[in-house]
Amino acid sequence: MSNTKPPHHCAALSHRLSVLTSGAARDVLAQGLRGIEKESLRVTRDGALAMTPHPRALGSALTHPSLTTDYSEALIELITPAERDPATTLERLDELHRLVYSQLGDELLWNLSMPGQLPEDDDIPIAQYGTSNIGRLKTVYRKGLALRYGRTMQCIAGIHYNYSLADDVWRLLHTDQHSTASAVDFQSERYLALIRNFRRTNWLLMYLFGASPALDRHFLRGKPHKLDAFDADTLYRPYATSLRMSDLGYSNTTAQAALQADYNTLPGYLDALAKAVSQPYPPYEAIGTHRDGEWVQINTNVLQIENEFYSTIRPKRVTYPGERPLHALAARGVQYVEVRCLDIDPFEPTGIAIDTARFLDAYLLVCALDDSPLLPPDAYAEANANFGRITLEGRKPGLELTRDGQTVAMQDWAAELLSKIDLAAQALDALRGDDAHARAVAQQRDKLADASKTPSARVLQTMRDKQQSFLAFGRAQSETHAAYFRAHPLPEEAAREAAALAARSLDEQAQMERSEVGSFDAFVAAYRAYTLNRFSV
C-alpha cells in the first residue's frame, strides 16, 4: 500500500535559500568548490588488464598532485583541482585524460566501472610507491586489502565528487539560526546533516546515474550469484542500475557488514571509525601481519586505516603532511564531503557529464540546507535497504521503497525530491543568469518518466542492438573515447608544464627515499600507535 502522507514540506529549505541569496549575501553559493577523482583501469587493446607499470612519464604515483594509482598499478586515478564551476572542473579532467593518453602508447583507459578482462586474482599487480617508508606503507595496505577482499574487487572503478560550500554560507546560517555552537562545530554539524540527508536519498543517484547493470562472467570467479545470463560471457540483472554499488561490489565486505558509522555527531563518527581502526578482528588476526618475514597488512583490525571504510559519502578535511584523516577532522572539523557512489558514465569521454555535475550541485545543496533528522540504527538500515534495492532493480516498474517505516512508491518520492532540487537549481541559476541547473534537473526528470533514458538501460540496449558482450561494449566505448583524446592533444606549453611537474614529482620521491631515516618496522609501529593514542576507545 502506498504512503498517503502529504509531501515533505520545503519551508526550511526555502528559508535557508532565501538567507543565502538575498542582499549582500547573494553570491555566496557561487563560491563553493567541487573537485573530481576518477579511477580508470589501464587495459590493452583487447580489453585485458595492462600488466605494465604506471608510466614513468606521468610522474610519481606517490607525490604527483593530479595523477596517482589506486589499488593496482594499472588503476590510474586522475585528480582535478577544486574549482568553483563544475564546467571548469570537467575541463581540468579532460586535460588530464589528454595528458595520460599522450603517454599510454597502445593502451586504453577502460571507461566503465566494472572491470574488463582480468588475470587470475593473484596476478593482478598491486600498486608500488617506491622504497620510502610511506611508499612501502601504501603498498602493504593494499596487500592487506587483497587478503581481506580479494584483488578482483579492488579493480572496480568509480568517480568521486568532492563538494564544499563557502565558509560564508555557514557563517550566515550560523547567525540566522542563532546557534550557540562554535563556527567550526556548526559547520561540521551542517555537513553531517548533509550526509544524513544524502544517506536517506542517495538511491536517487543510483537510479539516475547508475551505469553498471552488467559484468563479465569471470569477474565473479565462480562464486554463487543471482544474476541472469545476458550471453555466454556476460551476466546482468534486467532492472539493475549499479552492480558496482550492490552487494556484489563494495557493500558486501565481511568485517564492514557490521560497521555502522555514526553520522549524528562528529565525535560519534570519529569514535566509530577510531574503534574500527583499533579493534582486532579474529579472521584478520588469523592472517597476521607477516608472511615469510614480509609485511602483508598494517594491522589485524576491522579497518587497517580509516580510508578502508567503504561508504557512499565521507566527511573530509584536507590533511597536513603525515596527518591522519581522523585527526584532521577532530582538530579542525569537516571541510567538505566526498560523494563516492557515482559509476563511470561509459557514454562520456571523461566518465561524467556536465549535466550530472550540475544536478549533483543542486541535489547536494538541498541535502545541506534541508531539515535533517538524526539517523538512528533503524533509519540507517532502512536507507541501506532502499539503496540496495535500487542498485539491483531500480528500473522495475512500480518499484516501492520504505520511508520512515512506511511503503512509498519510488516515483512519488523521487518527484518530491526533484521539487526540492528544482528550488536549489533556480537559486543557482539566478547567480549565473542562465538555466543550466534547471535544464540538468529537467533531464533527470525525463529519466524518471522514461527509464530507457537512464545510463543503465542505455548500456543494455546498446549491447542488445550491437549484439555485444560486456567486454565488447567496454572495448568499443573505450576505443571511441581514446580516439577523441588522442585527436585533441594538449597544447605544447601545457604539455611542457605537465612534463616538468612529472619530473618534479619523481625528484620529490627520490629525495624522500634518500633522506629516509628509521626502519620500516619502527615507522609502522609509530603509525599504529598514533591512531591508538589520538583516539582513546
Automatic annotation (TrEMBL):
Q: In which pathway does it act?
A: Sulfur metabolism; glutathione biosynthesis; glutathione from L-cysteine and L-glutamate: step 1/2
Q: Which SUPFAM superfamilies match?
A: Glutamine synthetase/guanido kinase (SSF55931)
Main enzyme class: ligase
Highest taxon above the source species: Bacteria
- Looking at the record, the residues that make up the Glutamate--cysteine ligase domain are 18-389
Catalysed conversion reaction: L-cysteine + L-glutamate + ATP = gamma-L-glutamyl-L-cysteine + ADP + phosphate + H(+)
Family named by the database record:
Belongs to the glutamate--cysteine ligase type 1 family. Type 1 subfamily.
Q: Per its record, how is this protein called by name? A: Glutamate--cysteine ligase
